[in-house]
Every structure is written in C-alpha cells, then in structure tokens.
Amino acid sequence: MNKQKRQAVIAGNWKMNKTRPEAKALIEQLKPLVKDADCGVVICVPYTNLETALEAVKGSNIKVGAENCHWAKSGAFTGEISAEMLAEMGVEYVVIGHSERRQYFGETDQTVNQRVRAALDAGLRVILCVGELLEQREQGITEEICAMQTKIALGGVTKEELSRIIIAYEPVWAIGTGKTATAEQADEVNGLIRSVVAKLYGEEAAQALTVQYGGSMNAKNAQELLDKEHVDGGLIGGASLKAEDFSIIVKAASR
Ligand code: PGA
Fold it and tell me: Which atom of ligand 1 is the closest one to the Cα of 176?
C-alpha cells in the first residue's frame, strides 16, 4: 500500500478557544467550504463545545473530537472527563498526548498509554501526538524520542485496534511558533514513525496507518507538506480557527 491508498485526515485542534455561539458560527462557515472534501475532516473542540458541535455538524462530512480524556471509566477525578462520557455523546475522536498536555499538565508516556487504552475501550478513534522538543532535535535524538513515545503509547494496543489510531507527529518547537518543520523533516520523522509501527504490527498495518504532521501547518505551507509520501494529513491548531484557511488545507489534502 502507498500514500494514495491511505486515508488523509485533516483535524482541527481548537485548543482552549471559542464559546458555544462562536463554535456554532465557525462550523456553519466551515460546512459548505469542506463539503466536497476527499479526505477525512475532523474538528477537536473544548468539552463545552462538544454538544454544540455535534448538533451543528449533523448531515455534514465533519466529524467531532475531544482534546483529551481520562483513563478511568468513572470515579473521584474532579474536573476530568471519561472516554465513555465522550462516546455516549456521539463524539468519534479524541486527541491524546498533545505536547501542551505533556508540558503543562504533567502528561507522561505512561498516562498517554492509559488514556489511549481507555479511548479504544470506549470505541473512540484516537489522534495520538508525539514529537520532540527543540533541545532534543539539537541533541540529535529526535528519532529515539519519537520512537519511544510511539512504542509506549501503543503498549497493549492490538493490531485490530490500530486501525482506530492516527498518529500525529508534532515537533514541539513548531507548535504555535510559526516555525514549521520543512516538508523533508516532516516526511523523515513520519516515515520513521511508520517504520516503528511496522516493527510492532507488520508492514501492512504500518502502510495503512494515517500519520499526520502538526505544527504551524497553514493555508500557505500545507500543500508542500501534504505532498510528501509519509504525510497523510495534518493536525491544525491556529489555522483551524479560520474557516477559509482550514478549508484550503482540507483541499490540499483531497486527492
Ligand atoms: P499550530 O498547533 O497549528 O497552532 O501550530 C498545532 C497543534 O498544536 O496541534
């Protein structure tokens, strides 16, 4: 299998942005712009916007995701949301292991793995984020870091379940900085992640895996990145908050 046969997915990561009326307005703007997309279109929104988003996307090709979930089914975890709660609402995707969660909220490779397990058990699809810090790139350990994060996150995940996982390579130094990885850098690490998955699950499963790039992907640079063999879509932060820009990226991924 090659790039042509893999599903490209463009996912917006709204982060902590948009009130409910703002969310509804953005989705209404987006719907006609992406209706002919020949790739998966997902918007991952704050918990408070999930119900609004699910209602607004009805009858469209846009899928809704959350930005995190807890690993326990229920219990004394004040302020947390379980994967089951999301699935019950009709949410299909969840972002797990985003670098902002690792950086600001003590997320570790182990808790990422627990959350991945919980999300899969609840029937969700996972957008699993991995990526190196700037110091790590400068030390020449990008490969090791991304391989380790990928392996630990996938612990206990079966080959069958892998089909519900998308991996997003997001170099931390490129997130929200306007400093994009070059298309060559993105392709190289995405390819490396695919080879790690091939060792764990076999070549066929690895070839079928959607591996996104994320980090300052925008309307201008998307095409060059998305044309690369191992870049099967994107996880888009800032540019996903503007309907026009997001739709240009969706078009760039459509083949
Ligand atoms: P950015 O964010 O596109 O604003 O760099 C990407 C992400 O954090 O997923």
Answer: 5
Q: What burial class does residue 77 get, using C-beta atoms within 10 Å of its C-beta: 0-12 exposed, 13-18 middle, 19+ buried?
A: exposed
Tokens linked to 216: 């300052």
Cα gap 77→64, rounded to integer Å = 24
Structure tokens at 8: 């490209």
Q: 236 alpha carbon to ligand 1 midpoint, in Å?
A: 5
Residues classed as catalytic: 98, 170
Q: What is the pLDDT of residues 145-198, one digit of tens each?
A: 999 999 999 999 999 999 999 999 999 999 988 888 999 999 999 999 999 999
- CB environment 82-104: b (16+ within 10 A), e (fewer): bbbbbbeeebbbbbbbbbbbbee
Say yes or no: CB of residue 118 within 6 Å of ligand 1.
no
What are the C-alpha distances in Å from 140 to residues 27, 85, 133, 144?
41, 41, 11, 9
Q: Is the CB of 245 inside a 6 Å radius of any atom of ligand 1?
A: no
**Residue nearest ligand 1's atom 3 by CA:** 237
Which residue, 6, 2, 5, is CA-closest to 212? 6
Q: What is the number of the ligand 1 atom nearest to the C-alpha of 239?
A: 3
Answering whether pTM is above 0.90, one says yes
Longest dimension (CA), the chain: 48
